[in-house]
Design a protein that fits this description.
globular, alpha+beta, DNA-binding, three-stranded antiparallel β-sheet, Arc Repressor Mutant, subunit A, 10 strands, 234 residues
Chain lengths: 234, 234
DNA sequence: TCAATAGTGTCTGTTAGACATTATGGA
DNA sequence: TCCATAATGTCTAACAGACACTATTGA
């Protein structure tokens, strides 16, 4: 599928725009979440990075623009999870846009690294120099991932098609930022009918090989329980 | 504080704009959530309604614009809860804007009704004729309220400063769309240390008078429990 | 007095968290 | 063999949901 000649990685110096669309692409690497950043085209700023962004084209929706951006950046389109929000504070954006709309995309671990000279994955919680609004969009994406984690099956979008339960638990631990109890994790997973075992096993290093599972949601769990005033005091 | 002469209720016919800011104001009325709508200025459309909206002014942030809109619409500023998101699909908006950013504001029950001839509260789940994008923003606001209900103390923003526990439970039931168990609700509320009793009592109709409480969060609940894969299969 | 609503005590099934144990491979 | 990891069984404290009961007012 032919795309425009100028990819985000080699975009020309900043132009004026009233509204930009930015995508935050996340993938796990080791025990960290990493995000894809592009070196700023502006030669005046040294070692300045930004999110892949573009402006809307005629007849395009916001989602169209974000999907096109993700495709142009990573080749095959990653799973676009949704919109983070609009960022229109006084913090600057490389495009000069008054307002930027950020989207979140999740890339499975082990996907082909698209790293050219101007594109690289950085730890999402310790990004390099970013314009203030870009930093706000990245932080918003991380918050959105954690918020939606217990409501949508987004952890599975960060894993390959088959995975071990330890891998799945590690993803949850990365996203939640805390360790989970193995037995409880597997018990809750079993009760939710979200995965099914394959007949493959994988041996990594020393210990006993782990069975591979695939994401296969069967049904939603029975009745809701009552109101939990969990973090409500925040 | 002087405001612009043309309030949203009497705004001139639609002008072209590239980006609009809309506010969804919600308040409980009876056992329903209601939203504030403004009659469309466009004389061609008969009985067409829209959300209060405006465009950003120079040096204004998105939040500034939303707060100004809420103030101009309701007098004293209601509690603006946050942004719903950007809506830039092909669905039309009264402003003709390519993209609209929606904000959510919660108005305590019993607040002065600002109803002029061109402004009225409508049941949020059965609005009158709305442009498609406006309908999408309203639906997004309702979804956001339910999503954030167990994470943020938004139920209290729909109540006056003092309230009975039955009122509070009714708000939760309206927002969740289901009935709650009285004893469990109060037990969870007590454990969360979110309200404190006043020494006032209120008698409404027949039964025993109810004690009035006020919102007074003390601390957050102790340890989190593990992962709950609640609605995760969705 | 009855009806209606507020508020509380207690029982039970479920579950999160902890601990222990077995299983299975590599060094 | 020892060690590391996978996977599972069991116990306990906490909690949601249900029921029953008392308390207090107006009709």
């Amino acid at each position: 599928m032919p795309d425009r000649p100028s990819t985000p990685a080699t975009r020309p110096p900043p132009r004026r725009a009233s509204l930009s669309v930015d995508v935050v692409l996340l993938t796990p690497l080791g025990r960290r979440l990493t995000t894809l950043l592009v070196r700023t085209g502006d030669p005046r700023a040294k070692e300045r990075w930004e999110l892949p962004w573009d402006t809307m084209r005629a007849e395009e929706t916001l989602e169209d623009t974000a999907a096109r951006l993700a495709r142009a950046t990573l080749g095959a389109g990653p799973a676009l999870i949704g919109q983070i929000g609009a960022f229109g504070n006084r913090r600057r954006h490389p495009s000069g846009a008054a307002v930027s709309v950020a989207f979140l995309g999740l890339v499975p671990a082990g996907a082909p690294a698209p790293v050219g000279g101007d594109t690289a994955w950085f730890p999402a919680d310790e990004p390099p120099g970013l314009a203030p609004r870009v930093r706000a969009m990245l932080d918003g994406a991380l918050a959105a991932v954690r918020t939606r984690l217990d409501r949508e099956p987004i952890a599975f979008r960060l894993l390959p098609a088959t995975f071990t339960l330890s891998q799945l638990q590690e993803i949850y631990e990365i996203l939640l930022g805390r360790r989970l109890h193995k037995a409880s994790f597997r018990r809750a997973l079993h009760a939710a009918w979200l995965v099914e075992p394959t007949d493959e096993w994988r041996s990594e290093g020393r210990g006993r090989p782990a069975q591979l599972f695939r994401y296969a949601p069967r049904k939603r769990r029975g009745g809701r329980r009552g109101v939990r005033f969990d973090v409500l005091g925040g």
